[in-house]
Design a protein that fits this description.
alpha/beta; 2-enoyl-CoA Hydratase, Chain A, domain 1; 22 helices; 45% helix; 6-stranded parallel beta sheet
Length: 565
């Protein structure tokens, strides 16, 4: 018996020792040394929210999101162990607002007295705009500074549809509600052109002003250089648009000298993992990304994000019922979708706002249905370049009869009522049907106006004047009262803390919803025949969502925002 007790005691001591050794190893493995440089690479697909693909995370590691970059820079700003930041910038999927949010964080790091360097191998409008926020910008020698202004273009399909014998029978409310113009027209209408030109002009001025401020140049001088572009590396240096010409190894050597001769560098993902704050008080950040449809969130078979009303509504309920969550931030990056699905989300937002503050943080796009789900929040915050507004509605269908006739096919039908053919894809809407759907559209549009008026404390008539389906930049929207103030996620966090009366010195943790699902959870979904598999909607679920959208009499979709280069 004594021998058994000695063996058991020895085993316990060994296990405790191993645990202590493990804790020591983990401490030193996760310790951040003084004079460490944070290294961030920004290129390719930078998603707004973590992709719900647990297997991919398991095989190649978690994707870096916009939120990761912003959060990492904000932590580095106040971290005494971080002396500077290197940002290697390539071409990315981000548009104006996301880039502005990262630029704001980089400028805050600069103001904190830490060095920042942006490295470009090939400069484009996007990549240079982001890198220009750094104190020092280095460009690859003998490269191309491919900056030459902005152009907006749209592809119109009406001519092709006519050749196919397909008639687009679509209607809208709002002179600027032009989402279907690319189907019904062959070129810009006056309203479509007016909105596009205004949007492009605002973006271009924000671009010039941002570069000028960061580079300490006059906006007119920046514009003159851009007008001469593309430039060579030497010309960009001479125009003071970059500070140095060099290669990556030379950038690292330069950073070493700035870093007291130390070579300590830490990648963004490792830094985030080692600095995750732990606090009892939480702020919930709910992602609202993609086209708004009924059902579950996920990705289309070709990788586009879908915001499922069931999923987002569930996250609001979860945050509302969690006593540790003191406020909710809805992070919106959506062009809209089905009106009824948007209303489901808005209702949960309204219910939550009755119990705890709700602040909306708008990313690249928060328009039409994307604005619908924001309008009942306590506060709305957008970047200057955010596309927002588009308060208007539309609906319609394609008449495929002409195509069938070209193919030698014919259709026949039997009905019980005149409106049985509302969704029938082989005839236009009848006059009675047209009157019916236009009444539905007017009802939805009026509900949209009233919701905005109530949420923004405006008169319905005043909302109608700035609605009409028109998109605005965040700066214009702020001037019109559709947005409260300009800023990014951290501005929203600050406002949420203030509304929730959380002391400024109290640490809070961010609870991101929906949470990132593990690969084991994905395997369980697969075994159970779930609607969302590996982050991608199953074909049956995706078709069901499309059918629901097609059956919806009114859509709240973003007007046709052109491709901007």
């Amino acid at each position: 018996m004594k021998k058994f007790l000695k063996i058991a005691l020895a085993v316990i001591l060994i296990l405790v020792g191993l645990q202590v050794i493990g804790m020591v190893v983990m401490y030193f493995a996760h310790r951040i040394k003084p004079h460490t440089v944070l290294s961030i690479r920004i290129s390719g697909d930078i998603p707004e929210q973590p992709p719900q693909d647990g297997l991919r995370d398991f095989l190649v590691g978690p994707s870096i999101t916009v939120t990761d970059i912003v959060e990492g820079l904000d932590r580095a700003r106040t971290d005494p162990r971080i002396s500077g930041v290197i940002v290697r910038v390539g071409e990315s999927t981000m548009n104006m607002a996301k880039i502005q949010e990262i630029r704001d964080r980089l400028r805050e790091v600069n103001h904190a007295g830490k060095f920042t360097v942006g490295y470009l191998e090939f400069a484009t409008n996007r990549s240079y705009y982001l890198a220009s926020a750094c104190q020092t910008v280095t460009l690859l020698p003998k490269s191309v500074f491919y900056i030459h202004g902005m152009m907006a273009s749209s592809t119109f399909f009406r001519g092709g549809l006519d050749k196919l014998g397909v008639y687009p029978d679509f209607y809208h409310i709002g002179d600027y509600k032009n989402a279907t113009n690319v189907l019904t027209e062959k070129k810009y209408t006056p309203a479509h052109r007016e909105a596009t030109e205004a949007l492009l002009k605002d973006w271009y001025q924000e671009y010039l002003q941002g570069v000028a401020e960061s580079r300490r140049l006059a906006p007119a001088d920046v514009e003159a250089s851009v007008a001469k572009g593309p430039l060579t590396s030497d010309q960009a240096l001479a125009a003071k648009l970059v500070d140095r010409l060099g290669y990556w190894d030379e950038v690292l050597e330069w950073a070493k000298r700035k870093n007291a001769g130390e070579e300590n560098r830490l990648k963004l993902r490792d830094y985030l993992d080692r600095t995750q704050p732990v606090a009892h008080t939480k702020l919930a950040v709910i992602y609202a990304v993609g086209d708004i449809l009924p059902g579950q969130s996920g990705q289309t078979p070709w990788g586009d994000e879908v915001m499922g009303s069931d999923t987002v509504a569930e996250q609001f309920r979860r945050a509302r019922e969690d006593d540790d969550v003191k406020a909710v931030i809805l992070r919106v990056d959506s062009p809209g979708g089905a009106a009824f699905a948007s209303e489901i989300i808005r209702r949960e937002e309204e219910l939550t706002a009755r119990e705890k503050p709700v602040v909306v943080s708008m990313s690249d796009v928060a328009a039409s249905g994307g604005y619908w789900i924001a309008m009942s929040a306590n506060r709305i915050i957008a970047e200057p370049g955010t596309i927002t507004g588009s308060i208007g509605v539309l609906t319609g269908k394609f008449n495929l009869l002409g195509l069938y006739q070209k193919l030698g096919l014919s259709k026949d039908l039997v009905t019980t009522t005149e409106n049985s053919t509302l969704e029938y894809a082989f005839q236009n809407f009848t006059p009675a049907q047209k009157e019916l759907i236009q009444q539905n559209m007017r009802d939805t549009y009026n509900a949209f106006l009233e919701g905005v008026a109530q949420g923004r404390r405006m008169k319905v008539a005043d909302v109608d004047k700035i609605a009409q389906g028109r998109v605005w930049t965040g700066e214009r929207a702020r001037q019109l009262g559709l947005v409260d103030e300009l800023g990014g996620l951290h501005t929203a966090i600050a406002r949420a803390r203030a509304l929730a009366k959380i002391p400024s010195d109290e640490t809070v943790s961010l609870m991101y919803l929906p949470h990132r699902r593990s690969w084991l959870e994905k395997l369980a979904d697969l075994a159970g025949g779930a609607q969302v598999l590996g982050g991608t909607l199953s074909p049956r679920a995706w078709l069901a969502q499309l059918e629901a959208l097609a059956r919806q009499p009114v859509w709240v979709l973003l007007p046709g925002v052109p491709q901007v280069q």
